[in-house]
Amino acid sequence: MEFDKESQQRILRVAADKNEGRPIEEIDEQIAGVLDLHPEFDPIWEEGEMASIPREVNGMIVNPFVHTVLHVTIDRQLKLEAPEFVAAAYQRLTSHGMESHEALHAIIAIYANLHFAGTRRDMQFDALAYETQVNGLDYIAG
């Protein structure tokens, strides 16, 4: 999934289908799953294209569209176990007691920082830094 108009329209369509109780195509179930994790975005999707504007949600500045695309990206990496280290880190974090959604967000944060840093510098995604940082994730239940 890309950060483009097509993805934005797809997310808005899935959000509308979900909110109106219409069946969701299998291919869009991943998006619907992310939307279920973020009910705080539900009223935002009704804004249509304006949903892609960053705003404060639960005390944090969030772009719901970008956040959803990042979730789908990492969910896909986990599902495909590619790269393998993402699935291994997720398993390690959750087996040590980290909530599933929190583990996803930890990985998403690394991916997002590297993706957008590369974009700003017009450079390719730093896969080695991604692997190093994800492998360095740890959680100690307190």
What does this molecule look like?
With 142 residues, the chain is mainly α. It has 2 domains: 1-80, no CATH class; 81-142, no CATH class. The protein has helices spanning 5-19, 29-37, 42-45, 64-80, 84-95, 100-120, 127-135, and strands spanning 55-57, 60-62. It has a two-stranded antiparallel sheet with strand order 1-2. Helix 4 packs across helix 5 (84-95). The mean pLDDT is 94.
Question: Short summary of the structure?
Answer:
By secondary structure, this protein is mostly helical. Helix content is 61%, strand content 4%. It contains seven helices and two strands, in the order H-H-H-E-E-H-H-H-H.
Strand order of the largest sheet: 1-2
Structural class by helix and strand composition: mainly alpha
Shape: globular
Count of distinct structural domains: 2
Roughly how many Å is the radius of gyration? 16 Å
Report low-confidence residues grouped into runs of 5 or more.
none
Number of helices: 7
Largest β sheet strand count, sense and barrel closure: 2 strands, antiparallel
Please state roughly what percent of the residues sit in beta strands, choosing from under 5%, 5-15%, 15-25%, 25-35%, 35-45% or over 45%.
under 5%
End-to-end distance, in Å? 36 Å
